[in-house]
């Protein structure tokens, strides 16, 4: 989305040194995590476990990805081999580390050189009064450059930390799915299987147990849990997802006004009757 905006306005520097390194950082870290989730779903672990290869923990894998790269154990790899996965993760981590200074440094330097060019052009046409002053151009230049640097530093820090915090915040949906599975198991064991064992053949306990299980499944799992997951996902999309694309420095919205577009002499005004 942001890349298409930069293309529309012809802002090439923010494409090469803003959008591109941001995508590299995001895809090399948490995009890689998404790929590992899909790969883990598609692997037949029953065959792998016969070879003493247990399913790896993605949480431990991502923790080792950042804190101890190249530490995948020979029995804990997800794809290829342990050496292959270590090499891929080290390469992706280096790409993410290189993307951070690419987001931080080039744009302020380009803006600074652009300001120098503008100030030099203005300096050729300034009058004698400005030449006799205390060089206000340099002060203004330094102030503007410091603002650009501070803005870019804040943007880079917000993006990097936001990728980590927002992804961790989205894990609450995963926690909800675990809670949903545990509640399903509790309702099945205590509201359905236990009455089956307690029933003496009359069917009364089976009917009561089925009724309790049905009400709990529909009321708690079908309605309350679905509503909770929906509200959490809605909140996450508005707070964590949308803040990646909104910047309050665009063009002001001007609603359509027919009277402002039509010349006044062309407007037909009906005379007011007494």
Describe this entry's structure for a reader.
The protein is an all-alpha fold and 274 residues long. The chain is built from ten helices and no strands. It has helices at 2-9, 12-42, 45-50, 58-67, 82-104, 106-124, 128-131, 136-198, 204-241, 258-261. It is flat, with a radius of gyration of 31 Å. The relative contact order is 0.06. Mean pLDDT is 79; it is low at 136-142.
Secondary structural class: mainly alpha
Strand content: under 5%
Q: How many beta-strand segments?
A: 0
**Mean pLDDT figure:** 79
* Largest sheet composition: none
How far is the first residue's CA from the last residue's CA?
58 Å
Uncertain stretches of 5 or more adjacent residues: 136-142
| Series of H and E elements | HHHHHHHHHH
Number of helices, counting only DSSP H or I runs of 4 residues or more: 10
Label the overall shape.
Answer: flat
Write down the Rg. Answer: 31 Å
Estimate percent helicity.
over 70%
């Amino acid at each position: 989305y942001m890349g298409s905006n930069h293309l529309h306005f012809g802002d090439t520097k923010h494409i090469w040194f803003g959008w591109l390194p941001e995508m590299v950082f995001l895809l090399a870290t948490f995009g890689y995590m998404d790929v590992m989730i899909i790969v883990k779903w598609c692997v037949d672990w029953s065959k792998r476990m016969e070879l003493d290869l247990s399913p790896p923990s993605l949480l431990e894998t991502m923790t080792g990805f950042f804190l101890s790269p190249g530490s995948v154990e020979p029995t804990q790899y997800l794809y290829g081999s342990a050496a292959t996965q270590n090499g891929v993760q080290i390469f992706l981590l280096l790409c993410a580390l290189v993307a951070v200074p690419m987001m931080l440094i080039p744009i302020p330097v380009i803006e600074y050189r652009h300001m120098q060019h503008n100030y030099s052009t203005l300096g050729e046409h300034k009058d004698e009064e400005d030449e006799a002053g205390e060089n206000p151009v340099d002060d203004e230049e330094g102030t503007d450059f410091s603002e650009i640097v501070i803005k870019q530093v804040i943007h880079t820090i917000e993006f990097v930390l936001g990728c980590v915090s927002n992804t961790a915040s989205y894990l609450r949906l995963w926690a909800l799915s675990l809670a949903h599975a545990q509640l399903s198991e509790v309702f099945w064991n205590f509201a359905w299987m236990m009455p089956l064992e307690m029933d003496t053949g009359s069917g009364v306990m089976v009917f009561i147990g089925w009724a309790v299980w049905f009400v709990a499944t529909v009321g708690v799992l079908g309605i309350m849990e679905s509503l909770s997951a929906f509200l959490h996902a809605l909140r996450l999309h508005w707070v964590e997802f949308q803040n990646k694309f909104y910047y309050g420095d665009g063009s002001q919205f001007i609603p359509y006004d027919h009277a402002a577009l039509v010349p006044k002499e062309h407007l037909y005004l009906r005379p007011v009757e007494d």
